[in-house]
Amino acid sequence: MRVNELYVADPDKDSGGKIEVNLNISLPNLSCDVVGLDIQDEMGRHEVGHIDNSMKLPLNNGQGCRFEGQFSINKVPGNFHVSTHSATAQPDNPDMTHVINKLTFGEIIEVRNVQGAFNALAGTDKLSSNALASHDYVLKIVPTVYEDLKEKQRFSYQYTVAQKEYVAYSHTGRIIPAIWFRYDLSPITVKYIERQQPLYRFITTICAIIGGTFTVAGIIDSCIFTASEAWKKIQLGKIH
Fold it and tell me: Where's the Endoplasmic reticulum vesicle transporter N-terminal domain (predicted)?
């Protein structure tokens, strides 16, 4: 049996105010030489070309790139985006069509009967989009706790998402496109609690099943008896 709870609190106070992020995204028409990850938030962080715990794998004979990165974000509103901003020379027409293979926050809770949006953007395909468009993914990150039968807790994050794409211009011309992941944290925590079914409830259920079985059996027996008596009367009528 699983009990779900909602409450307002930061369940993972030992995280140091950080959330681990795993991003895996494929850009089949943009070279790895110009692909980079930038991170910004309201605490003043502004990192262009993040490279720690990340790798870029060429696709399509070097014409494309798959970016895989593991990094942390602060528990404040902010964004991280895949762009060409860190490239030494900007390409003329960077193509931001892409497929998101994975985007998760914290540990994924893989437990039977726990259905959550831990990897909500997995499989998102924007290959048919305008090649010059920017993409905005607006995420609401929801803290999540799973407590097993031994009361051991695991912490993770689900998220909801809204998205749009657009070609942006300024007074100097078209703005370089990027793939933006803008995030904020929900104040509400979701908690899944595993609980064993109490013995009395099990006994009550069994008794209900047995009682129902006897009731149905009684109805069937009554129907058979009534039909049998009616048949006997019909047979007696034929004899007389």
Answer: 11-47
